[in-house]
């Protein structure tokens, strides 16, 4: 079974590669376009079935593009009739250092320094104190704090950190007390939803940022302005839902925090850099430096002040960066080869209303995100929907590509239902306190509410002419 | 997914059975093997290594004919063939000197006195396997529900 | 007449004193047991023993302790006569019909002697007396110390014996309960499994009564074979099959396939049997150890006819942990009996074997080996314990039997052995001999005991 599955991933794209060109569309396609289809199919199958790790798929995508459709590829592939547009190899390799990657790198550096000097943990402890000893309030506190951290740190690292705080407390609950399920589910909820709050909170957001049309750029600050209210509403709903589904019987709860850290110079620098970077990110309309440029500030500061050293660099999730790079390269190929436009034009969406398309794409995105990596979902869908936004008349009425890109990216964070959906879910599941059915029940309700609210958000943004 | 082995060594079959049974719940993810002598264990470990698989943990008795547990674990340590390998000495009779040697030379990670508590043994095995998986840089997601969660969190939050 | 202070030989001095002071004095005749002086009572006479003997004793805690002994030509009452208090510090008793000459302080005055001269004359006698008393006190102290040491060892052994006996009793009870419960558990399980089918009962009976003859290695090979032959079998399943099925059954594909259907239930039955077997082995082992310890530390050491081979086997059980890492070669003749305490003999062997094992471990001997032989020779039982350790240096071979001698470096030792001195004591107790011959690489202890033919 497994080998058959794995074989399919390579056989189907290979078959596509050798089919006659006239079979594809009524007007036929170029050789480059045909190859891009094969590469896209490979990426999609490989990201879904995972015969190789998802970051490896990204690298293979870039490699295949360089060999098959770049201007410095294999000679054999650079000539022939009806060849089409070859891509610049520089641009393809450049995806490794695309502005999005740099933005993420900046975020990683902030998180790295925070975790190295335990700033995150002490901050979490400080923030948790005002929520007292009422378990219901503590639950809210945990959700909010997790969300805040996951806006600037990776969702996985945030979940690990918060679970390490919460897990000892979970053991204090009675076996029958469903409250422990609520607490265990609160962390991935905060992490998954919180990640939507800022462009660097989770890769799909950053990928979306890249595809927003140049004349209607959404900045870092703008993103936070509409995403934050959405996140807060979602978290409050999630809080109530958790308390309703898994009533907490325990009446008081207290955390036993050990080892509070005294402030020293390095920790102070971390704090200052953190605040400075975020301030610069949300005030680009004043100083004019966009988010990508600002992202290099923490990198420069931490490296030169030896707050992050070369040993620490290995803790950076290069796999996430390369996963995104592969997606960007894939989008580049779809766009520059002309395939995306070709594809969208040949499909008939004319009869459909804009919002129907948005809803369908959102459902697809959420469905995919529940069964595979959120980032890979965004990698596959966003380049295509970006073109759809410009080509389909119905969509233009609802705000064009920006609307549908935003909807797709936000829906890609709706992977809430299964332990395999996201790493935070898997970590919470591994605590052993949550059964799959509880996660599915809670996740499914939150996912549906989330999708409805995304739609609502888009309608509102459209009405205030933001989109 | 990498094949990771846990090897238990005890010359008394009854005791060996008990150890194997106590950690049997990990069988779904790890390959658990029992050996009745240090020599057998060494041979098996070499076989595993030759096939490109990994030995994550050795749980050895001390008092055994021919080669005792501390000598065995010391040899394993000094062979340098098994980086990150975790070692537990499980014994009913070891002198003060043996114990010191076990810690200093064999670099054992934990010492259990017989009789042991199943729960404690299982927890420690999970803990050490978690450390092995993270130290070796394997994909922890495959083994997640069999891992020591606290250790996993501690190590994961360093990665960003 | 005068006696001047110039040096005179002891003999001539004594003769002159005897002649001068005791030639015409009164004579006292004592029967055996007559008391001459009482402890603490005043005495104003100085005695010279003419015939017989006396002893001086003091009472201490209702015990009479002998302090000195006087024979012919010795003075009695020197202390009390010349001291200020004038009290005797011992009770002096005649040990046989005794004849004494004496001179009292009153007579001394009547004789109209110069007292100073008299004292000068007696000075050497007094000093000599003091010297003897000092030596006696010293000797007495040493004897007492020795007795005390012996007492401590004996008490230790006795306490250990009592402790072990109590321990053995309690443990025996516990083990007996376990044994009984295992049996009843076994039979109840059989009743429960009966409804499931004969296969289950057979599996349970087979595994609970006999040790699995497959080594861990063979089992691993079987698992490998099964995984190779049957692609659909998972590894845990293969492990279970290797337990449930015999070697021939594993080779039969249909049996394997048929077993797969009920593999979990069958494995459960097998596990029950295996656990029962292991529990039985463990309780047997425990009772064996308990009985060995009991024999060794038995407070009752009556002599009986003992088969030597039997005692050696018991000793080997007790030291099995120490000799696990070395080669043990035994050649033991059956039916050689002697009249002795069983525990004593076990202790002899335990000590010898332990000593050999420890000496080799500490010296890091390569391929350590102990040979124990039991034969008879010239109507004597001969036991040799031989090791290939570092040997005992020539100069130490004598002192090794002294009570305090040990070459052991720290570490944990089984608290029953008190060294080779005990070996020697015990063997001598049964009219046996211990011989030692040792060169580096070979040390021989040879114990010879008399054969008793019933």
Outline type of chain B? globular
CATH topology of the largest domain in chain C, by name, is Heat Shock Protein 90
> Which consecutive residue ranges of chain B, at least 5 long each, have pLDDT under 50?
none
Sheet bearing the most strands of chain B, described? 5 strands, parallel
Mean pLDDT of chain B equals 89
Strand order, largest beta sheet of chain C = 10-12-13-15-14
Looking at the structure, what is the overall shape of chain C? elongated
How many distinct folded domains of chain C? 3
Domain unit count of chain B: 1
Number of helices of chain B: 6
CATH superfamily label of chain B: Response regulator
Strand content of chain B: 15-25%
Structure description:
The complex is a heterotrimer of chains A (467), B (160) and C (454). In chain A, 69% of the residues lie in helices and 0% in strands. Chain A has 467 residues and is mainly α. Chain A has two domains: 1-95 and 320-338, no CATH class; 99-315, no CATH class. In chain A, helix 7 runs antiparallel to helix 11 (220-245) and helix 21 (400-411) runs antiparallel to helix 23. The radius of gyration of chain A is 23 Å and the shape is globular. The model of chain A has no long low-confidence stretch (mean pLDDT 89). With 160 residues, chain B is of the alpha/beta class. Chain B has helices spanning 13-22, 38-50, 69-79, 96-104, 118-136, 149-156; strands spanning 4-9, 31-35, 54-60, 86-91, 110-113. A five-stranded parallel beta sheet of chain B has the order 2-1-3-4-5, sandwiched between helices. In chain B, helix 3 runs parallel beside helix 4. The longest helix of chain B is centred in the C-terminal third of the chain and has 19 residues, at 118-136. The two termini of chain B are 23 Å apart. The mean pLDDT of chain B is 89. Chain C is of the alpha+beta class. Chain C is 51% helix and 20% strand. Chain C contains 13 helices and 15 strands. In chain C, the strands form four sheets. Chain C has a five-stranded mixed beta sheet, with helices on one face. In chain C, helix 5 runs parallel beside helix 10, helix 7 crosses helix 10 (263-296) and helix 11 crosses helix 12. The longest helix of chain C is centred in the middle third of the chain and has 80 residues, at 115-194. The radius of gyration of chain C is 39 Å and the shape is elongated. The chains are: A mainly alpha (467), B alpha/beta (160), C alpha+beta (454). The interface between B and C is medium-sized, with 25 and 21 residues.
């Amino acid at each position: 079974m497994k080998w058959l599955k794995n074989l399919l991933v390579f056989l189907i794209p290979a078959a596509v590669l050798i089919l006659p060109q006239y079979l594809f569309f009524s007007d036929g396609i170029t050789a480059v376009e045909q190859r891009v289809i094969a590469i896209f199919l490979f990426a999609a199958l490989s990201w879904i079935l995972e015969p190789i790790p998802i970051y490896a798929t990204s690298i293979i995508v870039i490699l295949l593009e360089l060999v098959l459709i770049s201007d410095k590829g294999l000679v054999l592939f650079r000539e022939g009739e009806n060849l089409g547009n070859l891509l610049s190899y520089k641009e393809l390799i450049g995806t490794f250092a695309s502005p999005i990657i740099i933005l993420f790198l900046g975020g990683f550096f902030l998180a790295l320094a925070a975790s190295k000097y335990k700033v995150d943990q002490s901050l979490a402890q400080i923030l948790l104190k005002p929520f007292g000893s009422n378990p219901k309030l503590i639950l809210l506190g945990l959700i909010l704090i997790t969300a805040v951290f996951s806006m600037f740190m990776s969702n996985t690292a945030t979940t690990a950190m918060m679970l390490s705080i919460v897990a000892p407390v979970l053991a204090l609950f009675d076996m029958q007390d469903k409250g422990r399920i609520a607490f265990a589910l609160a962390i991935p909820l905060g992490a998954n939803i919180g990640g939507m709050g800022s462009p660097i909170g989770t890769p799909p957001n950053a990928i979306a940022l890249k595809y927003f049309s140049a004349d209607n750029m959404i900045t870092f600050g703008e993103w936070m302005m509409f995403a934050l209210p959405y996140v807060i509403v979602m978290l409050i709903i999630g809080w109530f839902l958790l308390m309703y589904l898994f009533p907490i019987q325990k009446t008081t709860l207290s955390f036993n925090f050990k080892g509070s850290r005294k402030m020293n110079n390095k920790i102070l620098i971390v704090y200052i850099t953190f605040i400075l970077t975020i301030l610069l990110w949300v005030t680009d309309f004043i100083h004019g430096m966009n988010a990508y440029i600002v992202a290099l500030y923490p990198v420069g500061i931490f490296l030169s002040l030896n707050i992050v050293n070369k040993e620490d660099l290995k803790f950076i999730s290069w796999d996430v960066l390369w996963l995104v790079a592969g997606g960007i390269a894939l989008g580049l190929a779809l766009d520059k080869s002309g395939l995306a436009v070709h594809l969208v034009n040949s499909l008939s969406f004319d009869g459909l209303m804009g919002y129907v398309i948005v809803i369908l794409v959102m459902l697809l995105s959420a469905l995919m995100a529940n069964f595979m990596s959120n980032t890979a979902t965004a990698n596959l869908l966003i380049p295509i929907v970006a073109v759809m936004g410009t080509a389909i008349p119905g969509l233009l009425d609802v705000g064009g590509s920006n609307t549908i890109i935003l909807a797709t990216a936000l829906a890609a964070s709706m992977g809430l239902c299964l332990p395999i959906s996201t790493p935070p879910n898997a970590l919470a599941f591994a605590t052993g306190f949550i059964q799959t059915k509880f996660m599915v029940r809670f996740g499914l309700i939150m996912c549906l509410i989330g999708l409805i609210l995304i739609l609502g958000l888009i309608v509102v943004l459209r009405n205030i002419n933001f989109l | 997914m990498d094949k990771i082995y846990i090897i238990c060594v005890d010359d008394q079959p009854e005791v060996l059975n008990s150890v194997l049974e106590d950690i049997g719940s990990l069988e779904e993810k790890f390959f658990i093997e029992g050996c009745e002598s240090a020599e057998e264990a060494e041979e098996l470990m070499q076989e595993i290594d030759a096939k490109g698989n990994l030995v994550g943990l050795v749980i050895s008795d001390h008092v055994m004919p021919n080669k005792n547990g501390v000598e065995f674990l010391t040899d394993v340590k000094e062979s340098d063939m098994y980086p990150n390998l975790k070692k537990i000495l499980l014994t009913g009779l070891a002198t003060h000197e043996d114990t010191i040697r076990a810690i200093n030379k064999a670099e054992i990670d934990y010492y259990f006195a017989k009789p042991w508590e199943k729960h404690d043994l299982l927890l420690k095995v999970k803990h050490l396997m978690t450390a092995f998986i993270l130290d070796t840089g394997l994909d922890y997601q495959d083994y997640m529900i069999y891992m020591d969660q606290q250790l996993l969190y501690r190590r994961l939050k360093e990665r960003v | 007449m005068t006696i001047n202070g110039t040096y005179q030989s002891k003999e001539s001095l004594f003769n002159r004193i005897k002649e001068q002071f005791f030639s015409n004095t009164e004579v006292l005749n004592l029967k055996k047991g007559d008391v001459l002086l009482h402890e603490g009572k005043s005495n104003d006479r100085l005695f010279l023993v003419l015939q017989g003997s006396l002893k001086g004793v003091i009472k201490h805690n209702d015990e009479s302790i002998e302090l000195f002994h006087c024979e012919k030509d010795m003075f009695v009452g020197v202390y009390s006569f010349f001291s200020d208090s004038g009290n005797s510090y011992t009770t002096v008793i005649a040990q046989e019909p005794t004849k004494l000459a004496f001179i009292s302080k009153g007579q001394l005055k009547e004789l109209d002697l110069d007292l100073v001269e008299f004292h000068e004359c007696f000075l050497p006698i007094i000093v000599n007396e003091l010297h003897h008393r000092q030596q006696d006190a010293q000797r007495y102290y040493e004897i007492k110390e020795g007795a005390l040491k012996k007492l401590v060892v004996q008490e230790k052994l006795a306490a250990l014996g009592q402790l072990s006996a109590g321990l053995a009793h309690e443990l025996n009870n516990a083990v007996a309960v376990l044994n009984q419960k295992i049996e009843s558990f076994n039979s109840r399980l059989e009743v429960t499994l009966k409804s499931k089918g004969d296969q289950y009962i057979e599996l349970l009976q087979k595994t609970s009564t006999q040790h699995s003859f497959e080594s861990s290695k063979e089992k691993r090979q079987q698992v490998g074979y099964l995984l190779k032959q049957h692609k659909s079998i998972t590894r845990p399943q293969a492990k279970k099959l290797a337990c449930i099925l015999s070697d021939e059954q594993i080779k039969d594909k249909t049996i394997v396939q048929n077993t797969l259907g009920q593999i979990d239930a069958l494995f459960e039955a097998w596990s029950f049997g295996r656990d029962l077997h292991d529990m039985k082995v463990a309780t047997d082992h425990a009772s064996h150890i308990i009985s060995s310890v009991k024999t060794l530390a038995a407070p009752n050491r009556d002599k009986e006819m003992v088969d030597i081979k039997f005692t050696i086997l018991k000793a080997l059980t007790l030291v099995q942990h120490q000799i696990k890492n070395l080669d043990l070669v035994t050649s033991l003749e059956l039916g050689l009996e002697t009249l002795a305490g069983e525990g004593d003999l076990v202790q002899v062997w335990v000590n010898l074997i332990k000593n050999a094992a420890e000496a080799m471990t500490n010296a890091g001997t390569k391929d350590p080996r102990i040979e124990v032989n039991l034969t008879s020779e010239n109507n004597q039982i001969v036991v040799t314990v031989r090791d290939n350790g570092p040997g005992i240096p020539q100069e130490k071979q004598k002192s090794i039997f002294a009570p305090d001698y040990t070459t052991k470096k720290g570490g944990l030792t089984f608290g029953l052995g008190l060294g080779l001195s005990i070996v020697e004591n015990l063997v001598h107790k049964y009219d046996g001999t211990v011989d030692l011959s040792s060169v580096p690489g070979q040390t021989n202890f040879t114990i010879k005991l008399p054969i008793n033919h019933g």
